[in-house]
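The methods section describes the discrete structure representation at length, but only in general terms. What matters is that the chain and its backbone geometry are given together, residue for residue. For illustration, here is how one protein appears when written out as sequence plus structure tokens:
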Amino acid sequence: MVEIVQLEKKLEACLAQLKQKFGLCAVKAEFEAEGASFRDLVRLRRWTARQDIALHLKIGGVEAVRDIKDALDLGVDGLIAPMVESPFGVTKFTEAVGPIFSGRDVYKSINIETRTAVLHIDDILAQAKGKIDNITIGRTDLSHSYFDQEVKPDCEFISDLIQSISYKVRAAGLTLTIGGSITTKSVDQFRGNRKSFEDRISSIETRKIILPIESFLEKERALEEALKFEELYLRAKLETEQMLSQADRDRLAKLKSRI
């Protein structure tokens, strides 16, 4: 129990530093890829709320109604729809969110992370204009979708794709976030292409943290601090699971002793 309390204090201190020194945009959460429980998200919401930091939830699909309802109960600030590949996907997302949030202001972002999505990007952006706030390019899945071992998140091909898409996103009046396997090599690449990227990419995201691109370009420890938060989060999550499972084991032992 003491370990969990200490981890939570470190987590909140890390969030405060990310906000004050690195301009933290939002913390990102998701049910599916992380295997997070509703309880995990409640705790994450508590930490972010204490620091007045936005929480964005990546839902399980463009019309994952259960996730959207959970997002409303959690009081999240933003929703992210994964793997949007067509204008219809945009419509399904906005139509699923609308009735549940019912006029409440919520930030909406869609992920472009497949070859199919890139082929349809003009139509997707036309449908998203005025309805969606942000586009996120997920470089890892996007690379894999080409089924080519030479196509990797930091390769020139993906970099050129991002540049091409970035002009279209800006023309549509949306912001652009880049995510997927962000490493020191990725940051060096962004710095090397600063003139090409800076005015059209608004933020970069790791699995949990979304920071302004300026933080990655200008501050040496931005990636390190973002990954530090994720490490602390995973440690706290594991400690909590172990504590709860131990309580169940203790209770089971008591029950057996009564038989």
In short: The longest helix spans residues 222-257. Residues 26 and 54 are 5 Å apart (CA to CA). The mean pLDDT is 93. The domain at 2-257 is CATH 3.20.20.60 (TIM Barrel).
